[in-house]
Design a protein that fits this description.
Elements: H1 25-44, H2 49-53, H3 63-82, H4 109-127, H5 145-171
Length: 176
Amino acid sequence: MTSTEPSTGTLPPDERPQAPERGGERETLEGFLDFQRASVVWKATGLSDADAARRLLPSLTTVSGLIRHLADVERSWFREDLDGQQNVPFRYSDADPDGEFRVTEADSLAEVIADYEAACQESREVAARYDLDAPSAARDGRFSLRWIILHMTEETARHLGHLDILRELLDGATGE
């Protein structure tokens, strides 16, 4: 979809993965996080680039900006904090703490979503190397993988609520 095509006003068929109803702890935790991640993509699909970048609030909050923020947060918690990787790319910086939220209608929503999905896959690959009780390499080992997964579920779900509201305001599309 290009920035000149109108938003659809409808959500695509719901093919989001469901968390297991009777699974082990890790499978259940990861299943709920993956459901939230898939819901972010599902809620944004069908918006035009222009609508995804449209500001409806006094802040820089937009659909594309929220998804870019979530990509940065995925990379921060899993690659940088849990795995101890250096030079992880982020859009925010000390000089521009709102960098990930700075989008225009020239930013492709498809590319924003693809980057978010790549960040989520990077997170899954990092997490697969650790036990749930493994301490983070950064932040003095204060956080376990279990805590990071729960925190990312909360972070993703909170911003998904913002996406719900923005999507309804933009084109009227609603859905669970």
